[in-house]
Backbone:
């Protein structure tokens, strides 16, 4: 279970290096559009326990609540190709009392070219009723420690794509 330590620095971004697999690609050798979600979610699931010492299932069991995705906003910039090594990064860019927005992005292995950007919005809901509930206890501490909590109101994904492209140059 996550235990906040005020003297510890918590990274706000996860990173994985991943090989694009043949079985996940279309006949043009591009990563299938739907497979980006698998690559993003699997990368974050692998990295969160390593970086923060927490398994999401521990949160779910203890608080009897989980995050449910209700919106994806994805921008495909450059295709990921079969056999290519890529970098997948993720971070919580914003949260409030019951909602989080995760940003996932994929670059080439040298981190010079943006391939895809995904914003996923999730609501925290009770397991029993499926109704919104507030982040509490260790869940709230985890979000406070690891979230960028940027002001994203009015920012569109195309603006964020442009910013990331500039940062990668």
Residues:
């Amino acid at each position: 279970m996550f235990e906040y330590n005020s003297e510890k620095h918590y990274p706000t971004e996860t990173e994985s290096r991943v090989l694009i697999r043949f079985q996940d690609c279309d006949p043009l050798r591009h990563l299938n559009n739907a497979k980006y979600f698998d690559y993003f979610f699997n990368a974050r699931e692998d990295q969160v326990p390593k970086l923060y010492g927490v398994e999401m299932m521990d949160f779910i069991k203890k608080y009897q609540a989980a995050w449910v995705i209700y919106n994806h906003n994805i921008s495909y910039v450059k295709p990921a190709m079969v056999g290519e090594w890529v970098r997948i990064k993720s971070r919580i860019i914003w949260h409030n009392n019951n909602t989080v927005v995760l940003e996932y992005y994929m670059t080439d292995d040298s981190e010079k070219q943006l391939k895809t950007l995904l914003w996923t919005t999730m609501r925290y809901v009770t397991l029993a009723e499926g109704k919104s509930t507030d982040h509490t206890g260790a869940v709230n501490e985890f979000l406070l420690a690891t979230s960028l909590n940027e002001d994203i109101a009015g920012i569109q994904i195309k603006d964020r794509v442009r910013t990331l492209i500039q940062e990668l140059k």
Summary: Strands lie at 14-19, 65-76, 85-95, 99-108, 114-126. The longest helix spans residues 35-52.
